């Protein structure tokens, strides 16, 4: 059975969703509303299910539509990138790389690798989804991105996880805090201190709590935040100390905050690359992944 729809049918679907209605989408695409409706109907016929729920006041995605939307966005991105690459004149080809990355790696590590890659391939564009660990796994599984940089391998048999780096949890405190005078600490040194923690739903928190339970260590958290960057703000204000991955701490000398190693036991998270098993990467993504692997595995 053949699947009969056009690229403009996909663009019509995305336009209706993004512009929240048929009227504005028709104007943006320079189509009549009946013509736009026919394109949506043809796409729904090809998919075999309704993608949009139409009411007198609004248009909403169906469950199938919500699953289909990220795939359509990626198909259009790749289609546009291919056309862009074909028009490129010169030695370096164009294209786009789409990836998901946990925020700490996206902020502190990824930009340097991208800068080196762009020196060789200046026409490559990047679409980076800085997502939580669970959201990043889901984006890889749905095919919304080509690969992910994550701290979880997940249990999905359709995904592979290649470990790259051990990122230890460290203490972050103010320079004038008593614990800052010591270069190495144990978990017992943190007892009785006002601690700042990330949400219990965070992948980092889950990993840390599980490791401390196995080690028989119990810590009392005074503050709970959603983002690691917020915990550093509370530390800087002198409200407490925080335990967080080294990649999430300032990499350069900070005027107020210092980090200290925590041992007995050392607790770390594993950062790695998540891919769909058997999926082929575009040439540009394959080249970037090779550079990424080589950089992350280099000493220091």
Concise description?
With 300 residues, the chain is an alpha/beta fold.
The main β sheet shows up as: 10 strands, mixed
Radius of gyration computed on alpha carbons: 24 Å
What is the helix content? 40-55%
Quote the distance from N terminus to C terminus: 54 Å
Categorize the overall geometry: elongated
Q: What is the arithmetic mean of pLDDT? A: 84
Which range does the strand content fall in? Answer: 15-25%
Task: Spell the H/E element sequence.
Answer: HHHEEHEHHEHEEEEHEHEEEH
Pfam families: HTH_1, LysR_substrate
Keywords: DNA-binding, Transcription, Transcription regulation
Domain HTH lysR-type: 1-62
Family: Belongs to the LysR transcriptional regulatory family.
Quickly list its features.
10-stranded mixed sheet; 10 helices; alpha/beta; 41% helix; 300 residues; two-stranded antiparallel ribbon
Task: Describe the model.
α1 (7-19) packs across α2 (22-29). With 300 residues, this protein is an alpha/beta fold. It is elongated and about 70 Å long. α8 links the parallel β8 and β9. It contains ten helices and twelve strands. Strands 3, 4, 5, 6, 7, 8, 9, 10, 11 and 12 form a ten-stranded mixed sheet that branches. The chain has a two-stranded antiparallel sheet with strand order 1-2. It starts with 6 loop residues before the first helix and ends with a helix.
């Amino acid at each position: 059975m053949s699947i009969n729809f056009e690229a403009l049918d996909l663009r019509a679907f995305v336009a209706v969703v993004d512009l929240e209605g048929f009227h504005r989408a028709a104007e943006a695409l320079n189509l009549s509303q009946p013509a736009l409706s026919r394109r949506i109907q043809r796409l729904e016929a090809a998919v075999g299910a309704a993608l949009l729920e139409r009411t007198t006041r609004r248009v909403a995605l169906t469950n199938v539509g919500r699953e289909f939307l990220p795939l359509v966005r990626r198909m259009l991105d790749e289609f546009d990138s291919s056309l862009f690459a074909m028009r490129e004149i010169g030695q370096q080809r164009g294209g786009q790389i789409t990836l998901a990355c946990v925020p700490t790696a996206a902020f502190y590590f990824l930009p340097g690798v991208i800068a080196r890659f762009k020196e060789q391939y200046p026409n490559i564009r990047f679409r980076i989804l800085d997502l939580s660990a669970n959201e990043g796994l889901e984006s890889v599984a749905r095919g919304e991105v080509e690969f992910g940089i994550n701290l979880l391998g997940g249990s999905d048999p359709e995904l592979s996880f290649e470990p790259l780096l051990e990122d230890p949890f460290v203490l972050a405190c103010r320079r004038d805090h008593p614990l800052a005078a010591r270069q190495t600490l144990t978990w017992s040194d943190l007892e009785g201190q006002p601690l700042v923690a990330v949400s219990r739903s965070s992948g980092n928190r889950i990993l840390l709590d599980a490791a401390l339970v196995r080690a028989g260590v119990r810590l009392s958290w005074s503050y709970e935040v959603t983002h690691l960057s917020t915990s550093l703000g509370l530390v800087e204000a002198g409200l407490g100390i925080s335990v967080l991955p080294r990649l999430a701490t300032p990499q350069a000398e900070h005027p107020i905050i210092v980090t200290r190693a925590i041992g007995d036991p050392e607790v770390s998270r594993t950062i790695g690359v998540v891919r769909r098993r058997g999926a082929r990467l575009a040439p540009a993504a394959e080249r970037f992944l090779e550079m990424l692997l080589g950089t992350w595995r280099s000493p220091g």
